[in-house]
Amino acid sequence: MKKSSFSLVLLIAIQLVIPLVLAGCWDSVELNRRAIVSGVAIDRGEGEAEKYVLSFQVIVADEISGENTRGISPVALYTGKGHTMFEALANASRQTARFLSLGHIRVLVISEKVAQEGIKDMMDVLERESDTRLTSLMFISKGQQAREIMSTMTVFSKIPANDLVEKLDTTSKQFGYNYRMEVDDVIRGIQLRGGGPVINGVIIDGSREGADTNDNMKTIAPHAVIKVTELAAFKDDRLKGWLKGNTALGTALLHNKIKGYPAVIRYPGSGFIAFNVYQSQLEVRVKAADPEHPVFIVKISQQVSIKESPNSLDLTSPETLQNLSPLLIEDTATKIRAAIETAKKYKSDYIGFGQVMERKNPQGWKKVRDHWEDVFAACEFRIEADAVIRHTDIRSNSFQINP
């Protein structure tokens, strides 16, 4: 009993003493010593000594909260240069009176020039750094400095980075082919054998004069507007080209990322008809008995509504709707065909056919994975599409056919 009591006392003493020697918050930084970074722009510098030029969009908390405002810009931009990303970050800290806090970054914008040279080094930093998060959205600045995106004042949000996030969410629901692409998605894309990621593009539409001041928000028509644009297609970690129109829509369909998009077709003798494709389900299968010559079958089914029919078509007739469906099917097949042919031209399987091949025939995949880009570029594919017109919104026929 005495030995048991001694052990109990010793255990209690250890539990009381150990917390005294542990520094629970040894690396803590007080909130009033932090500068919250909402967005980062990455540009190419001059020479290797200043390879990376990082611009940090820092939130000015007093201007956002509405208390103790001074009438200045709600964000500030600080820039650092260095041979590596970490060195550029360290150099940027020389300009700020607070520690740059990277845990709230919502947007990362990379210039087209940097993307053409390769982005794997910077992705390693983003994945390794404990302060950053893998859910930040990534964009490629097309033909412009990424810094310009981060220094453009916007109307609907005081913080430009937040405005860009909201625009992406809006366009993904209404227009179609732009969808969320996070840091983790890009890293996974780079690891695809013979493939690469697809990243949203962004540009400044309009004049840059005064775009970085509050004057850009004081006119009915802003001088400059941040605009989500085409898709940047990669091979490994290098930008290969830009996807737009049918090619971009087909690529988004192949990734099953479409929430809705407008489809416009010409009906013989009746002009154009506009549809809203509000649901798409796509599946890719492969016949891979011969791994060197796989045949991919793309099967897609869609549900559609008629949004605009300014003609004399009788939309109450099932026969009319049945005649419209083949035109929609061909339109969808054209988009998917354009996407696959473009990927084959780039010899980059960013549409993910290799993953389908690996799941279907693991042993065959091992034989072709080292030269998959060549197999993919020569592969055969078939498209099986189906479209059903569910409704015509709140009216059937156009008023134009009424007497």
UniProtKB/TrEMBL annotation:
Keywords: Germination, Lipoprotein, Membrane, Palmitate, Signal. InterPro entries: GerAC_N, Spore_GerAC-like, Spore_GerAC-like_C, Spore_GerAC_C_sf. It is a lipid-anchor. It is found in: Membrane. Residues 230-392 form the Spore germination GerAC-like C-terminal domain. GO terms for biological process: spore germination. GO terms for cellular component: membrane. Residues 27-200 form the Spore germination protein N-terminal domain. Belongs to the GerABKC lipoprotein family. NCBIfam families: spore_ger_x_C. This is Spore germination protein KC.
